[in-house]
Design a protein that fits this description.
The protein has 121 residues and is an all-beta fold. It has one domain (2-118). Helices cover 0% and strands 72% of the residues. The protein has no helices and 9 strands. It has a 9-stranded antiparallel sheet, with no helix packed on it. A hairpin with a 5-residue loop joins strand 4 and strand 5 (51-59). The two termini are 17 Å apart.
Amino acid sequence: MRYAKYELVAGGTCLQETFRFEGDDSHTMVTMYHVDGDDLMLTHYCIANNQPRMRAENISADLKEIAFNFVDATNLPDPNAGHMYKAVFQFNDENEFSSAWTFRKDGKDTFTEQESYKRVK
């Protein structure tokens, strides 16, 4: 089972997402979402051993969809090394959303991981 936990950190200036597979801490990943000037940014701390940064390029007028695109990455030996390149979030309501993360290697999108989430209270 996969799940994500969300927490406001750094005095409420950053949203921390912790994604893990139940019973398997080796696949835990963290994504930090924050504002940088007029931009909404994310940094994804990936099990691929790099940290892509992405900027929200498309935010729908109703705020139900946000699409992030790659800006740069730390610990990425060269642009052809595998890394997350795009992330799209769709918010259905206050209790449910989905995400689609696209992985790129050798200049080509190689797969997309899609997840759906429901709030657990």
